[in-house]
Every structure is written in C-alpha cells, then in structure tokens.
Design brief:
single chain, 112 residues
C-alpha cells in the first residue's frame, strides 16, 4: 500500500488458508505463492523442495486424521457434502465450528 501511495507499481500476493491455520506453516500455501510469484515475475524456478515439503505435510495431516476417528468422520462428511454439490452437511450431531477449530489448533500445536 505504501508503494501505491507513492505511485510506485506494486503487486501483492496472498494464499488463502483457513483462519485456524493462519499462524502455522502451510507448505501448500507457500508453494502456491512461490509459483505465482515466479509467474508474475516471469521467472523460471524449481519448486522441487517445496513439493517434497507439501507431500510430507499432507502425509502428516492424513495420518492425524486417520488417528482421530471423530475428525476422520467429519472430513468424510464434508467431502461427501462437497461431492453432492451441497454446502449443507448432515442433520447429525456434528461438532461446532469452534470445536473443530480447537481440534485442528491442538493438532498443529502437537506437530510443532
């Protein structure tokens, strides 16, 4: 914004991540920003190291979900709702957004 106020051309990039991940390192978001920055700057880059970090991070998340049946069930329900093209989940007793965010925050604290 300071550049724009001074008339200097500038570009801002961001990766959208859920609010409960905002303080954590999220390799897929970092990779997306890196790739987009390279595109904007017309640069050739090797994202190989980020690919490996993304894969390792996704494996950890997947392991965590499988180790916690209640979270795995919620993820399955969300995916099923998305596949049906519906934002509405189910009429079952699901955890609140706060409960889900707390569980994910706890997972991220344990991973650090």
């Amino acid at each position: 914004m300071a550049f724009a106020e001074r008339g200097t051309p500038a570009v801002g990039l961001w990766a959208q991540v859920p609010h409960y991940l905002s303080g954590a390192t999220v390799p897929p978001a970092m990779r997306a920003l890196f790739i987009r920055l390279a595109e904007v700057g017309r640069l050739r880059v090797d994202a190989g190291i980020l690919d490996a970090q993304c894969e390792a991070w996704l494996v950890k998340v997947e392991e965590s979900v499988t180790e916690r049946p209640e979270v795995a069930e919620l993820v399955e329900q969300i995916e099923a709702a998305e596949n049906e093209g519906s934002a509405r989940l189910f009429d079952e007793d699901l955890p609140s957004g706060e409960e889900l965010a707390s569980e994910i925050e706890r997972f991220l604290r344990e991973e650090r």
